[in-house]
Each structure stands twice: as C-alpha cells, then as structure tokens.
Amino acid sequence: MQPHRLDFRDHRRSLRDNRYVYAVVSRRARGLSIGINLNPDKVCNFDCPYCQVDRTVPGGPRDVDLGVLESELDDLLARVNDGSLWEEAPFDTAAPAMRVVRDVAIAGDGEPTSCTVFDEAVDVIGRVRAAHGLDDVALTLLTNATLFHRPRVTAGLSRFAALGGVVWAKLDAGTQGYFEEVDGTRLPLRRVVDNIVAEGRKQPLVLQCLFMTLDGEGPDDDELDAWQGRLREILAAGARIALVQVYSIARRPAQARVGVLPVARLEEIGLRARELGLETVVVPGVG
User: Fold this and answer.
1) Are 160 and 122 within 8 A, CB to CB?
2) Range of the domain at 278
3) pLDDT tens digits, residue range 102-149?
4) What are the helix and strand counts (H, E) for the chain?
5) Which H or E run contains 105?
6) Domain total for the chain?
7) Closest among 267, 266, 277 to 240, alpha carbons compared
C-alpha cells in the first residue's frame, strides 16, 4: 500500500491543538498556504452546497482570542523558518515541489470579515509575519464580499491593503436566482457587486468564481452571459481586477447533488472573462 501523500485534496485544518491557525497544501497557491480561521464557530452568512465544512458538528466559541491567534501564528512561522514543520506529519509526506510557503490566507469555516475583531486580527497577522521576516510571503483574504460596507470591515481592509494583502472575492453567479441557489443565501447579489466595485477602486482584486453541476446540470448560457455582464459592470465602474479564477470543486461537498463541471465548460466560462481583457486562470475540478 502506498503511503498517504499530502496534496490539495487534503484540507485538514488540524494542527496540533490550534484553534485558529492551520496549514494546507493549496492547488491555487501551488504550495503551502497558512490559514487563519476567524470563524471557529462555523457560522457563515452563506450556505453553499459545495462547501466542505461539516456544520453538523458544532463549532467553538464565536469570539476570537487575539492573544491565542498571535501565539499560534508565531509558533507555526517559527517552524516554517527552521524547517521543522516538514519533519512532522502530515507535512513530511508533502511532495517536494509543494514544500514552499506561498501565502498566509485569512480563510476558514465562515465569512472572515464577520469576525468582530477582524480589523485587529489583521494587525496581529501583519505584526507576526514581519517579526519572522516573511513580508515577501503573500497575504490573501478569501471572502464573499458581503460585508465590506461595514465600518469595522472597511477599516480592516484598509489595514490589510497597507500590508500588501490581496482580496480574493467570490463571484459565482450573474443572476439573483442562481446566486441564491449556488451560494445558499437570500442576500442581494447587488450588494456583492457594489462591494467588489468599492474595494476594487482602492486596490486590484482577485475574483474567485466556482462553477459546478447541480443534479447533473451546470449553469446555462444565459446565466454565464449574466455573469460576464457583472464582470463588465464591475470594470465599467472603475474597479480593478487582477485575476479571475474559474474553477470547480476539488473536495467532497456538503450536498451530494453537487458535481464537477467539465473542464471544457470551465474553459468556455474563462473565455468570457478573457473577452473582457481580464487575465484568467482555469483550474479543473476533481470528482
């Protein structure tokens, strides 16, 4: 039997007894991504059918202890610096090409900007990263862009940008109906688009766009035309988009009705973004 090799299908967030800081091999980052989970309670304002978070198991306390967050991140970055991380399971099984720290990503079991100390957490992450001489390691925020208009979140995003951080905002749909279906929310898609525009005027954003099948059917051409229209609208409003990521699922989703969208269809979607002059990467899913 071949030994288990850590790869992008394995997104276990267990790291010793850590509450907030974890590390995974990321297919999009193409290496080790150090994750910051600001939602240990597993509460999210989306209920995406493709999400891999098991919400049948209760989460922990909602409040984030910034002292614990700082201690956990400091410990992990110290082990990255001295190389000892690669000597412990499961990281000792990672392919050599993946043994590179690519980013520190604020991403976890919910929408990170909903954290009540989001802005202060950004300060902690920046301080610890600098203390370990890792300012050249990318800093990313994976977000659904629903809360950018809140003052505390706006302040945190400004601090995040000052650290050189890049926002990866979700845009999975072009119409309100499809948005509600694939992201499991009744929030207005209009708010997401407006928030992307507002933040994109301040700094270039990455758009992460997941497409899938539901009961064997993917988005139709009308939906994809509407999605392209949202991109066009965002650009026309003066927002900057550094990259569009078009991808499908790679891990077991919450709902069995979710499937992988064929790569040929993903390429068609990517072409819609490229037609607008946007740099676009297509990442095949894994079924």
Assistant:
1) yes
2) 171-287
3) 899 999 899 999 999 999 999 999 999 999 988 989 999 999 999 999
4) 7, 10
5) strand 101-106
6) 2
7) 277
